[in-house]
Amino acid sequence: MSSSAEILSQAFTLGYTYTRSTGPIVGQFLTSLRARKMVGIKASDGKVLMPPVEFDPISAAALTEFVDVADAGVVKTWCWVKEPRKAHPSDKPFAWAMIQLDGADTPMLHWVDAGDEAAMSTGMRVKVRWAEETKGLMSDVNGFVPEAVALLGELKPATSDEQITGMEAPIYLTYNFTAGKATARYLQSMKKGKLVGQRCPNCRNVYIPPRGSCAACGVPTEEEVTLGNKATVESFTIVYIPIPGNPIKPPYVIANLVLDGANLSFLHLLSECKNEEVRIGMRVEALWKPEAEWGYAMENIQYFKPIDEPDVPVDQIGKLIDEGR
Amino acid sequence: MAQLAAVVGVGQTKYKTKRKDVSIAGMVREAAVNALEDAGLTWNDIDAVIIGKAPDMFEGVIMPELYLTDALGCNGKPMLRVHTAGSVGGSTAIVAATYVQSGVFKRILTVSFEKQSESNAMWALSNPQPFSPHLNAGAGGYFAPIIREYMRRSNAPYDAGIKVAVKDRLHGAKNPLAHLQLPEITMKEVEDSPMLWEPLRFLEACPSSDGACAMVIANEELAAKSPRKPAWIRGAAMRSEPTMYAGREQVNPRAGIDCAKDVYAQAGIHNPRKDLDCAEIYVPFSWYEPMWLENLGFADEGKGWELTMSGATSLTEGGDIPWNPSGGVLCSNPIGASGMIRFAEAAQQVRGEAGDHQVDGAKTALGHAYGGGAQFYSMWVVSSEKA
Amino acid sequence: MRDVAIVAFAQSNCQRDAGAQNEVELIMPVLTEVFKQTGIKSAQDVDFTCSGSCDYQQGAAFAFVAGVDALGAVPPIKESHVEMDAAWALYEAWLKIQMGTAESALLYGFGKSSPGELPIVLSQQLDPYYLAPLWVDTIAFAAMQARTMLDSGEITEADMAEVVARSRNNALKNPHAQLKGDQTVADLLKEATYVSPLRRHDCCPISDGACAMIICTIEKAEEWGKPYAIIKGIDHRIETHHIGSRDLSRSVSTEIAGKAAGVADGPVDVAELYAPFSHQEIILKKALGLGDDTVINPSGGVLAGNVMMASGLSRIGEVAMRIIRGEAKRGVAHATSGPCLQQNLITVLEAK
């Protein structure tokens, strides 16, 4: 994480290994790939389409008739990637190409390991370089190579001949997320152990955490308001199920809390009390982590805990002025 | 100036936890083909395709409509993709209706889907972002405190939610497409099911489903030539409000109240409980039935649970205003499609095509969807009569 | 079809990285600007609001939900969203006006592409079984499309460089442009290839930003007393995702949409074409039957700055503003989505 007076940014990965079911057509193609065989599919007009699509692009008919095609063919068009990206199938310069296999009427996309751009040309013949181990994925084709290249690698037999019905698709994208201006200001205050919200210039309501605007009025907010540690429970739930990405062990209480002087609640943990004693209107106070652990995060407050003050009448929640300031 | 339009075909898939037998395209196609067959049409009869789904993170395919073009016979035709969070299935149907009601198109296909088994819905809905100000406790963690506040205000008995959970599952047992099939379910079983987000129990929450729903919508002239009865679109409305602002009413959101008023005015509904024969309402957590009964004007504020407890919303108990005869979201929840299923099931009721969960003599029905932090609403009223 | 007026348009500067501006902070200034142009206060003063954005651009589900915070949507408003370029949001609103349920509408599009690796992000909009797992990016497909045309002799590398030189030169007069300059074709051709045959300058830059527009019935525009441009025709089409089945030197969906929108019904003074790659401008010009008397991309087009999800609506706004300023009488705007121009929207605009 980097920080300056204004900008807070942090890298994060949006990722999941998706489990795709393929259906019979895609499944058959992947099953064939695993057996190191290329198959196309016959379109309504009799053309052989590659890779086999489930539905005819022109007639919209569901296609079913597979046709064997060769594992060699002609480059119809291509481009040269000088600097492969991390996600690309090759870490050396390579070509993407639309390759029309012998016996097919449309070209399919794959990559060509030609070593050098000068070795590539439209109309050149290429052949599949099968992966040493096949798994029923597009990567069973470890790229194409110019047809004259001798392939010496050992090919292990396919581990299974069962029909493929699914595949894993690991999709991990990295982003560098930058907090908005208001969020950055707020988190910088949090790092100093202070709760600072913003007041709407129009309706005068105080928002914490602030978002830089009042959603009701649709206007930017700038005026900062420092708030204290006391809050009221607006509502709450006891969470009993584990949530992906949340390390806290259930059961635990999360509550909608309105800080004194603020007009909108936020969710936070409530602790140091019996779950069954939590109630709407209950008075609580922030328990901060040790200062050494403070970062740019709401989690600097470890949790809120009950304090010995009378409950707030429901119609007053969210309308308290901050007396402790 | 708006042209008359009607639903002339409805197609759904069977809803289940994992549709392992089909690709994404195969699943969407299945609903679309079913809708075309119901309408007695082929791909060439369709002028445009309007598609909706919830966030692309569910399947990890960005703007999947690009890839779905061929499965939906859309090569050379217009295609539009709607995304309005959980209300998207309903919004998509409304946008699709607009294509016809504007007079620009004669007959269109609309589809919505979710194949949630490709990932984990809870992950996809709340993947952690840096500097995110809120605690991540899933959708239930967001809605449970609002439900608790409803219970406080209305003094509802603790088992009103349990009653809804049972009622909708008994409805679902009459719908062969419903995901959860629990014909033997009891109040005790729901009450004994594990607490997830207190006061919400496991059996009071919706499942995670794979599935797709499609409709063919036609103009007046073509609807008249349709082989089965059309469901005339008598009113359609959408409303949005921000997720959070000071003083926002979260239990009985203004956007829902306004949206209902709008759609009722268009359809000539003065008393929804009397003037409507049934309703398909987006109830992902049991307690949202009594809450929406009030929000949508079927009951006075604080009294929605009384209607629920009286059996008025139950088809099996012979209630006067069955809610979710299909079993609703509590039985099947492919999120992006859930709203459209409500709209399509409302249409099936007034077409007399609802099978075992048909409400006898249903003429006018409400379809409803909501999404985000209960802030996006879409509703339509369909009827067996044009006017 | 009834005529629809465009009365206001605003766009942010195209920036490579908008840094600490969140959705609301990106959107609010352009909204404020179109409200000012129209003489209204907020989204409460129009009948319908519709936006376009894409969750994956910045890697957050429900990116558009935060956008609602910029609208002042209390009391609640009639609002919708497309997971597409905002040009399609305009189309949805145009239908509402045709239908008679709205007299006016606010449209906006926003995109923050800077947080991610955009070409790799966009690779995941391709077929999820055959293409996405290879992480083949959109630049690669565009490059192969360009080579098809170079191989057939239909275009030369100099033709492509000419598009870029003109774009950069036109952008000198566009305060919102990100890339501008006075470069000759010869200079450009001296640059090394990037994803051959494309050079870096053949590809649009990555930009953050937003744009907004207000449309209404002619009667409403007269009532507001604001100058306007008229949408005479609008149509959108998609074509097959099976790229091997396509003739990549043509954009068939643009041809159909152009015909349906009535591009050829009169002379075209100006056209703004959403061509993220230089050779695609040539394909689009051909698909729309535009001659050399049409001024193409006077703003510099998206080669000078490309806010994904907003650029399509901005093309329409650029043409509308030129018509409103009296610089043109009739113009065409184009928006696109998907690999190799898979989906396209055409708008025909005229002066009042």
TrEMBL record, chain B:
Entry-linked InterPro entries: Thiolase (IPR002155), Thiolase_C_2 (IPR055140)
Organism of this sequence: Zhongshania aquimaris
Annotated protein name in UniProt: Thiolase domain-containing protein
Domain Thiolase C-terminal intervals: 253-381
UniProtKB/TrEMBL annotation, chain C:
InterPro entries: Thiolase
Organism: Zhongshania aquimaris
Upper lineage: Bacteria, Pseudomonadati, Pseudomonadota, Gammaproteobacteria, Cellvibrionales
PANTHER family: ACETYL-COA C-ACETYLTRANSFERASE, NON-SPECIFIC LIPID-TRANSFER PROTEIN-LIKE 2
Name listed for the protein in its UniProt record: Thiolase domain-containing protein
